[in-house]
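User: Last request for today: this protein with dinuclear copper ion, please.
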Amino acid sequence: MNVGPGAGKRQPALTSVAGRFTLVVVSLSLSACAEDAPSILQPASDAAVRIERLWWVVFWISAVAVVVVVGLIVAAAIRGRSRSDDEVDRSRVRWGDRFIVVAGLWVTGGILATTFLLSLREMNALSSPPEEPRLSIEVVAHNWWWEVRYPNGAVTANEIHVPVGDPVEVRLPSADVIHSFWVPQLQVKKDHIPGMDNSLWLVADAPGRYRGQCAEYCGLQHANMVFYVVAQPRDDFSAWLAHEASPANEPTTLAARRGRDVFLGSSCIGCHTMRGTGAVGDLGPDLTHLAARETIGAGLMPLTRENLRDFVANPQDDKPGVTMPPTELSEEELEAVVDYLMQLE
Ligand code: CUA
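Assistant: Here's the final one, the structure of the complex with dinuclear copper ion:
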């Protein structure tokens, strides 16, 4: 408690609170400008345009409310100073009562009701796709990565390919706790809830790579639970999908062949699937076409040979808390396995 002679010196504390607040606001706005950070203000679908429009309506209503309220506070402070303490104007008080009822009840209630009704209208519009989805995929949320399953048997992780312009139904089961599927440039967010059949739909209007993020706190690596929606022209998408459903490539080099033998003889197969081989584990991501992905560790870092080697050697260094333990492979075995994994395109 700050009492006694020092009690009057509260300015520095206030300044530092204001300073910290400014810092948070500035860093948040700067982070929103970062190249890879998605924003609902850069919509890439009709659904996201609706969300953006609603955002601006709420923003401007709030901005006007802030300006009016701050203006009234400043006016009251200025007028209060010019009056002496024993001077009371009764008529002004009566007008004040009416003002409180009108501004505090009717105007506020009107604003809340309007934004509520606008939100309901958009929620209704966003609940069903413009046409029946021809593709239905399943995205299973895990601590802390995304399993993506296609109807033709293709299974991948953390990268969701979709055809441009076609509505896609995304079913949202969870393997463990509550997560939330959010691609700000394409759709609203929706939770993966264990035991519930949630789903949403999305359409990407243009080819591109849209970042998604788990939007429900789910434990230590919640922030590193990233995925990408890759929207491709229909033909490219079909080719990608057919390839993803195919079995893993046969290793072509001596080192990669050695790597496959080490992999299939190791504990890796207890958790990972490699379609076309004896590996059918289902705790970790399907690795059949691992090398075709852009990142590892659910958006944690770009997929390069060096990053992959580090990650397999000890995932707990890169992503503390993940299920995968440090490797038991020797240095030579590890290098061979990484050679094998890097050619699984
Ligand atoms: Cu999954 Cu947060």
